[in-house]
Design a protein that fits this description.
The chain has 233 residues and is of the alpha/beta class. It has one domain: Rossmann fold. Helices cover 43% and strands 15% of the residues. It contains six helices and eight strands. The chain has an eight-stranded mixed beta sheet with strand order 3-2-1-4-5-6-7-8, with helices on both faces. It is globular, with a radius of gyration of 16 Å. The two termini are 32 Å apart.
């Protein structure tokens, strides 16, 4: 397998960090994005102890200047990003009714979980298209699946549905360009967000994300994936 440069947002802990580890073990160069420079440095140090080519990038995905700085760094140092994993997300007011949720909670959730992901794609996908190779993985959730949607975490759920729509539109925009775009439901995973009682490990949660990030040229695009299979929207 050729070495590619991957950028993982929210990469300093949980599923994001495990995605960095797994991509590194496959021989890829990984840019670990994190809002916190100190948290990124600690995570990178652990990865490097394992012999992985992982480097820290200070990246708050809600800050356009951070996104542009990350793109400039990747372009100048490595000729661009080949694999983009949009993993960063927030979960606010998990148990609040949509009728009681504040506008600020909705806006903050969409700012991180949707608008920032769109901005990341706008920054990095054109370069992928020009090089005729790219893989974009938007880390979604079963909570955003319309087929079974209920009242859980309204802002989070709706933001993930919007992310799924972005995935479909971007996949069609990049079709036949060498760029594959998919979204992945990692499942309920034992992380700070998922909690200690979640049934899945971070290794299990990261598996399909890494699989989608390293698909062959004839792999799926515009799909909602879970456990390496398509699921309903």
């Amino acid at each position: 397998m050729s070495q590619h440069t991957a950028l993982v947002t929210g990469g300093n802990r949980g599923i994001g960090l495990e995605v960095c580890r797994q991509l590194g073990r496959l021989g890829h160069r990984v840019l670990l994005g994190s809002r916190s420079e100190s948290a990124a440095s600690r995570a990178v140090a652990d990865c490097r102890k394992a012999g992985l080519d992982v480097r820290a990038v200070t990246l708050d995905v809600t800050r356009p200047d951070d996104i542009q700085a990350a793109r400039s760094f990747a372009d100048e140092q490595f000729g661009g990003v080949d694999i983009l994993v949009n993993n960063a997300a927030i979960l606010l007011s998990e148990n609040t009714s949509i009728l009681e949720m504040t506008r600020d909670e909705l806006v903050a959730t969409f700012e991180t979980n949707f608008y920032a992901q769109a901005a990341m794609c706008q920054a990095f996908v054109p370069g992928m298209m020009s090089r005729r190779y790219g893989r974009v993985v938007n880390v979604s959730s079963q909570a955003g699946q319309l087929a079974g949607m209920g009242t859980y975490a309204p802002a989070y759920s709706m933001s993930k549905t919007a992310l799924n729509a972005l995935t479909r539109i971007l996949a069609e925009t990049t079709r036949k360009s060498g760029v594959l775009v998919n979204c992945v439901n990692p499942g309920w995973v034992r992380t700070d967000m998922g909690g200690a009682h979640a049934p899945r490990s971070v290794e299990q949660g990261a598996d399909t994300i890494v699989w989608a990030a390293t698909l062959p040229a004839n792999g799926p695009t515009g799909a909602f994936l879970s456990d390496r299979k398509r699921i309903e929207w």
